[in-house]
Amino acid sequence: MSTMIDIRRLQTVNELAREGASTVAENMSQLTGVETEMQITKINVIDVEDLGAHLGADKQVGVNVPLKERPYGSVLVLFDDESARSVADTMMGGIESDGGGYSDMERSAIREVGNIMTSGFIDGWANVLGRTIDISTPQLIRASGEDIASHCVDPGEHEIAMVFDAELHAPDADVEAKIYSFPDIEAFVSMINNI
Length: 195
Hints:
Strand content: 25-35%
Mean pLDDT: 83
Largest sheet: 6 strands, antiparallel
Helix content: 40-55%
Order of helices and strands: HEHEEHHEHEEH
Number of strands: 6
């Protein structure tokens, strides 16, 4: 099977990103009762073998959600510590963090937002693709970017990572996140080329 995307189909990848961002914003607005907007500011494709170096050595907080259906793989939402704390603070109604490690409530809030973001993003994809995409239980990870990469992706199993730089805007909080998709490349290309 070919792993080449018809160049005329690249617009579909942009449409996946837009629809995913729109669905995330709607879901966040419904959950929090606060009008939320999400914008994808940039899309990149990187080789999975370069992912650890791309993510770096700084500790980050991620929520990884494996996909049970095509395009398989997983979707990972990554926050730097400042954005993760902002997410937790917003979800917990302004309860201040002690600034140390994350409390159980903060971890739960971050996992929930990461789950909403990944499932909303995937639902947006499903809408564009005209199908459902079932997901597994979200996994919360706090580690260096390199460790997160080795935990989430097997370089022998996945060839590329699609990186969506995202900005989430709400009246009391602006959060930056990166959304990484690690699809089975053959399944992903087949789905895009068959639209």
